[in-house]
Model the fold of this input.
Amino acid sequence: MPHGNETRLYGDSAYIDQKEILNQLAPKAKDFTNKRVSRSTPLTDADKETNRRKSRVCAKVEHPSRPFKSIYGFAKVRYRGLLKNANHAFAMPALINLDKWGSPLTGQVRPA
Done:
């Protein structure tokens, strides 16, 4: 959710229809959403390269959420109550960090 002081808004082509809403939420931000492809108007090589550059920025935000969805099965939230779902969502990043970075922590603490 934009806070209003953004200078750029990145997104894939699904956000093209949301331009009015994004302009209201962040009026100072420039729109850097990818251009949409259609059969009648294919993208030029320059547009494809521009979309690639924009996608690199989006990937840095999207790729860290992969363990949530695919590895640990947090793609859909089951109805268990708001508090339980919130606790699960807040505990998941801590568990992922332990899984990812925990092995260096199990080494020797001080030299003998």
